[in-house]
Structure formats: C-alpha cells, structure tokens
Amino acid sequence: MPHELRNIVVKELREIVRDPRLLIGMIIVPVLMMPLMGVGIRSAMEATEQQLSKMETGLLNQDEVGSHDYSDTLYRLMVQNNLVVRNSTAPDTNSAVSWALQNNLGTLVVLPPLFSENISSGKSVNVSVYQMLSHFGFDEIAGSGRMDSVFTLFNNRVLHDRLGNDYNSSNPYLPPVPANVQSQSVVKGEVLNVSPSNLINTVFTTGLLIPIAISIVIILAAQLAATSVAMEKEQKTLEVLLTLPIKRINILLGKLSGVIVVSALATIAMLLSFGYYMSSFTFAGGAQVDLAAVGLTPDMTGYALLAASLFLSIISALALAVLLAAYTKDVRSAQSLLGVLFLPIFIPAFLLMYAPIEILPAGLQAVLYAIPFSYPSIASKALYTKDYAVVALGVVYQLIFTAVVLIIAARFFASEKIMTAKLRWGRKRKAETEME
Amino acid sequence: MITQSIRFVERVSKMSTCAVAINDLVKAYSTGLKAIDGVTLTVNEGEIFGLIGPNGAGKTTTLRILGTLLKPTSGTVSILGHDVVEGQMAVRGLISYLPEDAGAYENLSGREYLAFMAGFYEGDAKKTVDIGVRIADLKERIDSRIKEYSKGMKRRLLIARALMTAPKLAILDEPTAGLDVMHALYVRERVKGLIKERGTTAVLSSHNLLEVEFMCDRVALIDHGRIHETGTPSELKEKYGAKNLEEVFMEVVKHAA
Ligand SMILES: Nc1ncnc2c1ncn2[C@@H]1O[C@H](COP(=O)(O)OP(=O)(O)OP(=O)(O)O)[C@@H](O)[C@H]1O
Ligand SMILES: [Mg+2]
C-alpha cells in the first residue's frame, strides 16, 4: 500500500476505534442485533411448536348407524400423526364447538352421519373442520394444516383401496375426493365460514406492515430529534440559548414540540398510505378474506389504542434521543449513538410479527412488556384479537416511562452536564491534533 | 503623569460599583483537570476587561462560568451583585454571552435570527432587531440564509446579536476571531463605542494583543488556570519595560512555565 494511503487508513481506523460512540453505533449494535433477533425468533418458533404440540383435537363422531370402518381409519390416522384426540359426546355441532372452546381444544372435526357408508359407496362427503383462533399465530395455521394433511392421507388411502393398483394421484380422471374438508374458523366463539389459513394470512399481510412502518416512523423521529439537538451543540447555538433569561425546560419542550409536530405529520402520512394499503385488499380476490364481511374489522377502540401507543412511543423515543444526543458533541456521534435505540425498537416489532406475545416464554414476555416500543405492535395485533386490556395497561406504562425520561432530560438540561458532555472531550482534542 | 493620576481617580471612583467579582474561583472538570485554580478578579462597571493567555489557559472556562453555563467547583462569582449560582436567572437577564467559534441557525436569514433572539427580551423587539441589523452591517445580505454567509459574516451577526439587547455585561469569547483586518477594526470600534456610550461593561478574551491594547481598559494574563498579571495595558508595559502587550505576554508566560 502506498505510504500516504496507509497513513490515512491507519488514522481513520484509529479514530473509529477510539470513538466510543462510533464503536457502539457501527459495531456493537449490529453485532448484538442479529444474535438477539436470532434468539428471539428461535424462542418464538419453539413457542409456536410447543403450542402446537399442546393443541388437542376434538372429534364429534356422528357416524353411528351402519358400518364405521372409515371413521375408524380416520381416527387411527389422526392418532398415528401424533394428534391427541378427544371424543365429544355433544348432541350437535354447535354444542361440540362450545365444548371444544371450553376445553381449550385447538381443532374440532365433525364426521357426519353415514360417513363410512357414503364413502364406501363412492360418494364425496363434506366434513367440517373447525379451527379455534385466538391470536392469529403461526401455531393456529399449523394446527389447521395438520388436519388437512391427515385428510389428504385418508383420501389417498380410500382411493387406493377403491382403485387398487390403478390408483395414481396424478390421474386427471380421478373420482371426486372421498372426504371433502370444509374449513371453518372460530373467532371469539363465533363460527366464520372462511378457512383459518386464509383468514390468518389476510390478518398477517394487513397487520404485517403496521409494526414495521411504526418502527420506521419512530426511528425517523428519533433521528430528527437527535440531529437537531446535536446540531445545536455542534454549532454552539445551544450554548447561546442556555445563557438567555428563559427556563431551560422550555428549551427542551420547545425542541420536543417541534419534532413532535413533524412526527405527527409523518404518522398521519403513514396512516394514510396504510389506509390505502388496507383498502387495496378489499378488491383482491383469491385467498384474501374480506375481513369486514366476517366481522373482523378493527373498531374505534382498537384504533384509538393503537394511536395512543404509537404517539407515546414516538414521544418517549424522542425524549430518549434528545437525552442521548445531549451526551454527544456533534451530529456524527449523536447518530451513531442513536443506533443503540434501534435495538429496542426493531426487535420487538420483528418478534411480535412471528409470534403473539402470549405464547412466548415468560422471560421474553417480561422483556417485551418492559420495552415501551413493543406496545404499538401489541396494539396492532389487538385490532383483530380485541384484547384491549393489555394495550390499555401498556399505554399507562408508556406514559410513566415517558414522564420519567422527560424528567431526567429536564434535569440534564438544567445542569452543567449539558455543556461538559463527558463522553467526548479527550478524543476530540486528539482527533483535532491529528487533523492538523 | 497627570493623565495617569486622572485615570487613577477614575478607577477609584468606578471601583465602588463592581460589575464582576470573582473570588478564589476553582473549576475542575469531571476529568479531574483543574482548568481554573484559584482566580480572584474584579471588573468595574463601565470597563472593558480583557482576558489573555495561551491556549488551554482557562479563558473560555472562566467566561462560561460568568455566563452561568458552568458552575464553580469552589469560590464565588457575582455579577452586578447577583451570585452566578444562586441568582443565575437574574444574571442571565443582565448578560449576553458570545461563545467562541459559534454558528447560527443555518436555515434562517440573518434578520430572522436576530428577531428570534430579540423575542426572548422585553421591550420593542422590532427596535432591537433594527439595532442588531445596524451593528451587523451586512447590508442587503442580512436577508439571505445564514448558511450562505462567510465565517466573518456569521461572526458579525453573532456579535450584533450579543450587543443589540444592550446587556449590562457583555461576555465575548474571542469576538473578532476569523474577521479580516477591516472588519476586525470595525467590530472593535463598534464594541468599544457601544460599551462606552451605554456605560455598560464587557469581559472579552482574545489572542490578538493589538486589539486588546486598543479596546481594553484593563487586562488579566491567565495561564494554567491562574492569574499572573492584572493591570492597564500601559501599567503592564511599563512594569516589564515592553514596547507592546505581546512582549509582556511572552515574558509572563516564560516565567509562569
Ligand atoms: N468539557 C471539558 N472537559 C474537560 N476538560 C476541559 C473541558 N473544557 C475545557 N477543558 C480543559 O480545560 C482547560 C482550559 O480550557 P479553556 O477552553 O478554558 O481554554 P482557553 O483558555 O479558552 O483556550 P483557547 O485559547 O484554546 O480557547 C484545557 O486544558 C481544556 O483541555
Ligand atoms: Mg477558549
């Protein structure tokens, strides 16, 4: 390497390594980010699997008159596929659904009267499968998928028995499927005539964007606030403000209000584009479910809670960003230090996309509940599940958190620490000398 | 001889009202470094007082304490009878502080910046801005964005900001740094004129000893956080048998080291 180039490279590296903020923002945060996400997502997956293995299947067998060979076959296939099957004694489908809900069963299969007879005679029989949905998670999709594969096995078996060696599943002239599964979803005790996987997919695709978009708005707002404070420090305009005969809390609040107005505009812009995004789904055919038609449209309470938790997330992120930036001397260090804030904003949003908070291990749940930035994600899920209590408590918690951060920031602004910014001094002198 | 005794009488009469009283001031930063190490000084009302000393001597630290930005570690500082810690709000109402090497809000115009600052003071803001515009003397460029200003134009705007509100005490950290000869001269005369005309007080730091000699009634020479000399420029020159303040400076710093 040419001498001059090497000289400059060495200087650059030295500056980066010696600047604690650059180190935190560019190396430590990314290094932590992926493992933390990995651990989080792994435990989300494990929780999903565990949830699935606990999920029991109810069976209402009305195939009582005549032969019941085929219902026996189906039962055996279910057990062979590791399903825990419980038999219902309910007199009809409706009471079986209530029975399944009371006993916390995940899935309910209803075999109609004359099931075996009709299948023996080559008819196609409709079988209703009810999937109970409480949190629209992957475990619930998997639960209904598990039943679908049992029926695929069953149908193959029946056709094979019927056609012997002539059976070939790729034959286009196959007879109608013996057992025709009618998937139904049960949400909040109500039976909806849509397949659970389609329903969850729709909720997921519409709900997916909310936490991500929210995180982006929060981070942009935090960046704006940090830059504006760091700029005042770098340019020493803050130094002038601090010597004016005005209350310092007003400097802080004025700064925050300015960014809040801009962030509010950003949020409105985001909600508008989100509304457009949502409305584009009502036209989409195919696998998408019209949520309005099945009574799953979010209500005002849901939106109000989402807006409240989003607003408080933004404010607390802004207050934190201002505090972080106040510790730095210039814009560059403020922005790299801000990287620390990305962890608690992005990780909950990603995790809660994969798994609903209530199925996660207790430790992880505690961490997520403690992070104020989790609540917009939780609130966006609650738009569909209508579990508002947690969100309401979360909003109260966010209020307290924000107040505490604001008080700390106000104290910081009132003290001389705002001037001495102890993280930077020694390094800057060195950096300056190297520049000369 | 006669002029000197007149000066002496003037000084005694001024001493009755002292604008700044610094008593055994110590300031240690959180790094443990004692930037000011037992400074005692008084600045009289109506005086322009200069702080001179090498880089890192403690000039800015002293001025920041006067400006209520930093708190003394020990010792007391009072400005026109108000303690800088207990009476910081009162002090802030009396002073105006010009940081060394400062910027302004780049997206405002010069006039908007002055108006923003004038808004924090009582009285007719428009009049204050007009005074500021006149002090800055940026002609039609007063209405361009500050980001289009040169370093010296910015400095003139900031000096105008500091003086337009007629503070009882102006604290100016290297006011003419970065100005060309002509503008430095203009600013010096302007600052001196305004302070004398209004009978207010200024404390400034500078590395330009020519300027200090021209502007300041009295000077203190500070190094390693201690005052090594105080006096009028002519007193100091006389004491060291020097032609100018630069020679005094060299002599004092050599002995201090
Ligand atoms: N925030 C700080 N933290 C730690 N040490 C500081 C801080 N500010 C200044 N110092 C140190 O205090 C001493 C005095 O600094 P000060 O800025 O007052 O010097 P100065 O006389 O204004 O110098 P210059 O002529 O270079 O402006 C220096 O040694 C400096 O390194
Ligand atoms: Mg200085």
Write a brief caption for the model:
By secondary structure, chain A is an alpha/beta fold. In chain A, 69% of the residues lie in helices and 8% in strands.
What is the 3D shape of chain B?
Answer: globular
Structural class by helix and strand composition of chain B: alpha/beta
Strand content of chain B: 15-25%
Tell me the domain tally of chain B.
2
Tell me the count of domains of chain A. Answer: 2
Topology of chain A as a string of helices (H) and strands (E):
HHEHEHEHEHEEHHHHHHHHHH
CATH topology of the largest domain in chain B: Rossmann fold
**Main beta sheet of chain A:** 6 strands, mixed
What's the count of strands of chain A?
A: 6
Structural class of the helices, strands and pairings of chain A?
A: alpha/beta
The distinct bound ligands, ions and cofactors come out as: adenosine-5'-triphosphate, magnesium ion
Quick one: CATH class of the largest domain in chain B?
Alpha Beta
Provide the low-confidence segments of chain A as ranges: 424-436
What amount of the residues of chain A lies in strands? Answer: 5-15%
Low-confidence parts of chain B, pLDDT < 50 over ≥5 residues? 12-16
Average pLDDT of chain B, rounded to a whole number, is: 91
* End-to-end Cα distance of chain B: 34 Å
Task: Explain what this protein looks like in three dimensions.
The complex is a heterodimer of chains A (436) and B (257). Chain A folds into two domains: 55-193, abc type-2 transporter like domain (abc type-2 transporter like fold), CATH 3.40.1710; 204-435, no CATH class. In chain A, 69% of the residues lie in helices and 8% in strands. Chain A has 16 helices and six strands. Chain A has a six-stranded mixed β-sheet with strand order 2-1-3-4-5-6, sandwiched between helices. In chain A, helix 7 runs antiparallel to helix 13 (375-385) and helix 9 (248-283) crosses helix 10 (300-326). The longest helix of chain A is centred in the middle third of the chain and has 39 residues, at 196-234. Residues 424-436 of chain A have low confidence and may be disordered. Chain B folds into two domains: 2-94 and 168-178 and 188-256, Rossmann fold, CATH 3.40.50; 100-166, no CATH class. Helices cover 42% and strands 24% of the residues of chain B. Chain B has a six-stranded mixed β-sheet, with helices on both faces. In chain B, helix 5 (125-136) runs antiparallel to helix 6 (151-164). Classes of the chains: A alpha/beta (436), B alpha/beta (257).
